[in-house]
Please model this.
Amino acid sequence: MAKTLYQKVWDAHTVGKLGDGRTQLFIGTHLIHEVTSPQAFGMLRDLNLKVKYPQRTFATIDHIVPTENQDQPADPLAADMINAIRSNCDDFGVTYFDLKSGKQGIVHVVGPEQGITQPGTTIACGDSHTATHGAFGAIAFGIGTTQVRDVLATQTLAMESLKVRRIEVNGELPPGVYAKDVTLHIIKLLGAKGGIGYAYEYAGSTFDNFTMEERMTVCNMAIEGGARCGYVNPDEKTFEFLKGKPYAPSEDQWDEAVARWKSFASDPDAEYDDLVVIDAADIAPTVTWGISPDHALFVSENVPDRNGETAEALDYMKLKPGSPIKGTKIDVAFMGSCTNGRLSDFREAAKYLKGRKVAAGVKAIAVPGSQITAVLCKQEGIDKIFEEAGFEWREAGCSMCLAMNPDKLVGDQLCASSSNRNFKGRQGSPVGRTILMSPVMVAAAAIEGHVADARETFSFQEQAAVA
Model:
């Protein structure tokens, strides 16, 4: 019988059926960080348990680590968490990408760049944006601290199976439209709760043409549309990305691994619980206006009118109903996060930032998603382009995406952000405001000092042709 990738991976990792109807699912790869793991390790100690398969768990620090003076965090809590994950990994035999390793970074950047993330497996992490790894044809989902404990102790989870919605995006994206615009557009169309009970299979010619990093951007935000996970079927781009990575199969095992990975792709005649088809030509640069990722519109559109559904968001964001979103003054520009903190994100933004200056009064920071990303940016001179434009170039970490570190908004500052959530208080201040957009749109906002259409700021079509 024809099956989707989700069904194939689920079946391959099913240990058994539990009495309550749930499936006991084997977790192929477990990723951990400093925030949700200390209590889980503490529970193992209380129960006198070991990590079942330590070779399947990989750790890094990202959420709470400062992006300046990383070795000596001023916050005692941050220092304690950094010390805790180091000692826990030592005690339980878990691989840890420490600050001195040269491999540290955001967990959802580190996994792919190390080749730990692979097709046809199940991946769990105590972080909601674990869906990122689905870009490689894996079933990846975020879990809570007690589930982190369960995976450490048993390498399994008790779960209910999901329905599968196929989201096809076909055609060529217009100039100035990026993967971030695609994922915001999908969330706007289907709603922040539209994916509840679903896994999203992203497909169509647009995804076929996407790079792996673009696929990661879309899968990263599947959770923002309510889906438990999102994935793209593995293809030659997937295999080429992984080849030669530190944890990828060795050369003598490569052909066998690729054949196995290919077998997990959805069958051409697989049936889906729902199908959504989108024309790429209909997507324009997209930004959020409210306090949920589905509060989104094209940058050329106006803020919605005030009604029962929009009033709270409009009041919090201090936006005038019916006014253009373009021209909204910003105070901060943030480029980074597990959504858009990879080499290609900085490379693309640098192409348009070169020779320009951040507007007076705007605080602009750029935070690489990993130490390896930072090194690659430095090799290409990208860090210098950002610094010369007026950005602060920081060290690797989650930074202002969620502000569990010193990078925070102050008061009701408004931030143009390449991250994934615009919830109330998300960026550190209880009244801070966030507008989500693509990295190039963040660059345009930083230069203009307000929400801007990058196609206009950078004469986009002309420059794209030259590039």
Q: What stands out?
A: Residues 79 and 358 are 33 Å apart (CA to CA). Residues 76-92 form the longest helix (17 residues).
